[in-house]
Amino acid sequence: MLLQNRLISLQRPSFFSSSPTFSIKLPIIFSFQKFFSQSPDQVQQNPNHVVSAAKTSKPAVLDTVKFIKKAFFVPPGVEPEEVREDMILPGSNIVLGPYAGHAQIKEVQFVKSSGKAKDCPKDDRPEFAMLGRSNVGKSSLINALVRMKEVALTSKKPGKTQLINHFLVNRSWYIVDLPGYGFANAPESARMDWSSFTKGYFLNRDTLVSVLLLIDASIPPQKIDLDCANWLGRNNIPLTFVFTKCDKVKKSKGKRPDENIKDFQELIRKNYQEPPPWIMTSSVTGLGRNELLLHMSQLRNYWDN
């Protein structure tokens, strides 16, 4: 329990700040198509600046420790002044540290479905909980991570996952598939009060390393996602934003996924003094798969240390 509290204190952003928190106008989006070419002062003057993690001879932004603390998730074992460009995971704000490793999934086994948190496995293995609005692509992402078809049941009908499902990975840690929130098309008898069901899991699960909160990047920010993120923050639950469907092309009257991500971060930053870790993914193209597993490995290995 002491290790969990230590991990939460390092990963959890300070919540509900009373003053503006970022030194830039808009959250940072990585495109990997441009080099660092502006100083922090120039970034502040240009709110549409797109930051890249590609190698460059002008790492002016990363030379500013204050900027690093405000823009990136710096993991245990790394000091802000030690951060280099090649330590940042592509498509994310996550810095890779010394605890990263053993990221590949060799085997996965379904263990059980539980109707209550007290019925979940009690073997003290660390676990990552997958949470998101219905049809956010949660089951598809789980299948993409383990590279096995139908490990998690996918469906076009919201509300298919209605229990807490534990999958044992490499016989050492769990991926937990939680019921989606906000669904309206499930049978009345199958609808559940997310407040009393899933929230009970978060508040009472000592082996929870982090919540992976999935956000659909193909649509504008949704109030229900913001409410969920705010609830997790208020209750000191560590989380990582996993933006899904980042392969989707811009609709005729809509915005690109990276633009929707920027809008979401703009709303979230109003309540967080420091940004939670976030990463862009696509279960179709495999974007972000290896990077997400590396991020999970460094949190998990620190937990086990």
Automatic annotation (TrEMBL):
Superkingdom of origin: Eukaryota
Annotated GO MF terms: GTP binding; metal ion binding
Keywords: GTP-binding, Magnesium, Metal-binding, Nucleotide-binding
Residue stretches making up the EngB-type G domain: 124-302
Cofactor: Mg(2+)
UniProt xrefs under NCBIfam families: GTPase_YsxC (TIGR03598)
Family to which the UniProt record says this protein belongs: Belongs to the TRAFAC class TrmE-Era-EngA-EngB-Septin-like GTPase superfamily. EngB GTPase family.
Database matches in PANTHER family: MSS1/TRME-RELATED GTP-BINDING PROTEIN, PROTEIN, PUTATIVE, EXPRESSED-RELATED
Protein name (database record): GTP-binding protein At2g22870 isoform X1
Species name: Nelumbo nucifera
Gene behind the chain: LOC104588782
